[in-house]
Structures are given as C-alpha cells and as structure tokens.
Amino acid sequence: MSQPLIDELERARRSGPVRDILIPPCPELLRQLQQAMAEAEPDLVEIDRIASSDVAMAAALMRHANSPLLALEHPVQTVGRAMTVLGLQAAVQLLSGFLTRRALPVHSPLLRHFWDTSTRRALACAHISRQLYDLDAGLAYSAGLFCHVGMPVMLGGLKGYGSTIAEALARRDRSFSQTEEANHRTDHAVVGAIVARTWNLPPEVALAVRLHHDFSCLGDARIGAPVRQLVALLLVADYLVLQHEGVNAPADWARCGAACLAHLQIDAAEVEHWIDELHPVFEAVSLH
C-alpha cells in the first residue's frame, strides 16, 4: 500500500495541480545535517561545524540551552557545550526546525504563529513517542514539524489560497482538506508530503504527512505500522497543542480521537497528564 501512495505523490508532482507550485529546495545546511546523522555513528564534529556556521542558528541553540526550563547553574557560552547540555537528538531537532522555519517563512496573518504551533506539535510527538518505546522520537518530531508544512508552501505558490484558508476555517459543512481540494484540486497533506520527499525525509514521515487526515489507514495492515502510529500520534499531539493554546480541539478529534488513542494504547488520563507535563515545554517555545 505504501508504494501506491508514493506513486500518487510522484504523479501529483509531475502532472497534477502541484506541478505549478514552487517546492522550495532542501536547505544546504539541513542536507549536510541529514548526512551527518545518517552515519552509524553521527559525525559530532560535522554537526558542531554546521551549528556554528550560522550565527543566528548558533545563538538559538545556546538560548535553548540557557532557558529557565533547564535551570543551569552556569550559562552555556559555546555551541559544543549547548549540544552537550541539550543532548544530540534534541540539538539536531532544534537545528532542523530552525533551518526549516527559515526556508519556509510565513508572512500571512492567516497563519500567525504557524511555526510556534508546528514546533510544539513536533515536541509533543517526540515526547509521546518516548512513552511508547517502539516509535523513533526523531521520526515523530519530523512528522510533527512537517505535518502542515503544505500550507505555507501553498500560500506562497497558489493564487487565492489565502481566501481558501479563511473559507476552510469558517465552513462547518466540510473539512479543511475538502475545501482545499474543491478550490485547488489538491490539499496541504499532498503538498506537505511532496515537500518531505523533496527534502529527503524518511519515507515514513512523508507517508504520515500524506495520511494525517485519513484515519481509515489505522486499520489498513498494508500500510506500515510506524506510519499508522505516526498518523495517530499527530492527532493526539495536535489536541495537546491546541489545548495549550486555548483553541478548540481539531474537528478530527471528535470523530477519530478515541480510535487514535486506542491504536496507540493510551487512555484519556495519560493525555490529561501530558497536557500538564508539556506545559513548560510549550511555554518555552514562544520565548524563542
């Protein structure tokens, strides 16, 4: 089942309405970071070099290491020390998020706080995945970060997409994706998955982004277990983030929240606990 979905994305990229959308290339530093992490033993010297090669990115790394959340006795003053304090995976996630955010800027008030919300979703996904034990936290973080990345790409590349966002948020008779499809013959799940593939993210991430509103996949054994876990995880993470931000739960939650919890074998009490547990983590996002 995964291969037909990949073929669908390739067809959409070549000949569908997505063909005329400019898909930004993967940032060179992010490509180098992916290569460094692809080694059996990640190249720490190379990762340090990448982090230090951009002043703003290095400063962001050190700000996170010096945040009140970590409450260090002595402030971090070097990139290497920041990476030690944060841990390699957290540091790489932060660097990836910084580079993605800069490559895909959002200037429209329609997507105000888009990257804050996306970062919180990514952090929530990583947190939950660590509780599940059998799902890689790096995959989960990437899926959370890229889940809605099709929106800013469509906003920059499709005439009238800003009006589509306003309409989709206002309509109650059909879903956000259905409004996108009606107006543009594609949606942010397809475009986001194409961005993930173009940027050489793991195929599980691209497929989860493609399916993140299609919860029928949870019962489809033809789709890989990690992809189905990620799809369920994304909705739970969205719920956690929107609860924190004081926004109504996503429409998908009322329809499919219970199914996603059951698929992940977690209960409502755990979700409520995570809302409290992640509060300081979510709050720290808006400080940077």
Describe the structure.
InterPro entries: HDOD (IPR013976), RNase_Y/CdgJ (IPR052340). The protein has 288 residues and is an all-alpha fold. The protein folds into two domains: 193 residues, Hypothetical protein af1432; 79 residues, no CATH class. It is built from 17 helices and no strands. The protein is globular. It starts with a helix and ends with a helix. The model has no long low-confidence stretch (mean pLDDT 90).
In short, what is this structure?
With about 290 residues, the chain is mainly alpha-helical. Helices cover about 70% and strands about 0% of the residues. The protein folds into two domains: about 1-20 and about 110-285, Hypothetical protein af1432 (Orthogonal Bundle); about 25-105, no CATH class.
